[in-house]
Amino acid sequence: MSFRLEAAIGERGFDTAFEVHDGETVAVLGPNGAGKSTLFALAAGLLRADSGRAVLDGRILFDDRAWVPPHARGVALLAQEPLLFPHLNVVENVAFGPRAGGASRHDARGAAERWLGEVDALALADRRPAQLSGGQAQRVAIARALAAVPQLLLLDEPFAALDVAAAPALRRLLRRVLAKRTAVIITHEALDAHMLADRVVVLEGGRVVEEGPTAELLERPRSRFAAGLAGLNFLQGRTTAPGRLRVEGLGDVFGVERPEADAALAGEDAVAVFRPADVSIYRPSEVPHGSPRNAWRAIVEELEPRGPQVRVHAATPRATIVADLTPAAAAELDLGPGSAVVLVAKAAAVAVYSA
Ligand SMILES: Nc1ncnc2c1ncn2[C@@H]1O[C@H](COP(=O)(O)OP(=O)(O)OP(=O)(O)O)[C@@H](O)[C@H]1O
Q1: Which of 96, 133, 135, 272 has the maximal Cβ count within 10 Å?
Q2: Locate the Mop domain: which residues (predicted)?
């Protein structure tokens, strides 16, 4: 069931071409207002585009002449909140789709029980939605979406409304359920993308700014947003030589061409990407001799405890750079907001590639 959508909405600055291949799960990432919900609303038939078309499994869902209404699209949308019918019990909620599709009461109930079994929620069949935990309700909502046998499944941040304890079990369930299904998931978590998606599409300002296989994209992000999600530092500039990047406000940044065989040409837009653990912090008077090539003056903005590490956010003239230190090292440096420091990143730990 491949899905393809190209659509523009002037009022929202939305102008996007988007595709999901048969059996593939795509994660849609992007900052607030990027157009993620707009993409879903267009696919589900809750919103009309100014121009464009969408095709699911060879059927036109909309174009400049045709318009298939939401219930006839074969598209199921799972919202952040489970949105179950409060007056129906669990099995009736799940049977609703098959009933609406013309199944007999008996067959619809059978289908509902099968799908509830699929999401390990059969034991909840007789409960009302008000008697379910957040995680249980989301399981039931997934069963209800699947019971409608959608050709395309859209999941809008399915873990957003859950407490952290309930998310891992549901994530594993979705991993099983989404395998071989054509699906799109909106998420703000790198873990979701890694666990659930074959491919990632990054939206910003209503446009696709980056897309690619999940592991590759999160390891070598080309957008600030994807780098942030992957927990990596990210600088943009222009190459001046192989492995060297001129970054406004920071001067030349030295790194290693990645991949080695594909050196960015001089003058090309490129990015330098490095891990917070590969950034060291010094007092300005104590920068080691032998002049490290990447040494940037910065002012500490914030210290953030992260398990056994302290994450230091430090502002350079160009961008905030984050460094992970041990609490002992942070204390030894007497760091606090406003401290003047020098950040050092070894060239060998900085990946440079074309943007
Ligand atoms: N009902 C609406 N009417 C007009 N403009 C809207 C409406 N909803 C959203 N927009 C605009 O459309 C653009 C895309 O918003 P959208 O809600 O699709 O982003 P999003 O990526 O889903 O954001 P978030 O992560 O905050 O949910 C934004 O500029 C937003 O202000």
Answers
A1: 272
A2: 289-354
What is the position in ligand 1's atom list of the atom closest to the CA of 30?
A: 21
- In Å, the largest CA–CA distance within the chain is 80
Residues 159, 164: Cα–Cα separation, whole Å: 8
Mutation probe of ligand 1 site: the residue of 36, 77, 209 with most atoms within 8 A of C-beta: 36
CA 31 to ligand 1: nearest atom:
25
The residues spanned by each domain of the chain are 3-218, 232-354
Segment 19-42 mean pLDDT? 96
Is the distance from the beta carbon of residue 79 to the nearest atom of ligand 1 less than 6 Å?
no
Q: What CATH code would you report for 232-354?
A: 2.40.50.100
**How would you class 181 by CB atoms within 10 Å of its CB: exposed for 0-12, middle for 13-18, buried for 19 or more?**
middle
Q: Which residues make beta-bridge pairs with 304?
A: 311
| Torsion sign, CA atoms 281, 282, 283, 284 | negative
323 vs 281: CA distance, rounded Å? 8
Decide yes or no: CATH 3.40.50.2300 for domain 3-218.
Answer: no
- Reduce the DSSP state of residue 170 to 3 states and report it: helix
| Contact yes or no for 232/221 (Cβ under 8 A) | yes
User: Which residue is it, tokens 């594909």?
Assistant: 262
pLDDT at 262 over 70: no
What predicted TM-score, i.e. pTM, was given to this entire model?
Answer: 0.89
CA neighbor of 315 nearest in space, from 296, 292, 291, 334: 296
Q: How far, in Å, is the centroid of ligand 1 from the Cα of 210?
A: 19
Long-range contacts of 64-70 (CB under 8 A, 24+ apart): 69/45, 70/44, 70/45, 70/46
Q: State the closest ligand 1 atom to the C-alpha of 34, by its place in the atom list counted from 1.
A: 21
Distance, CA 157 to ligand 1 centroid (Å)? 15
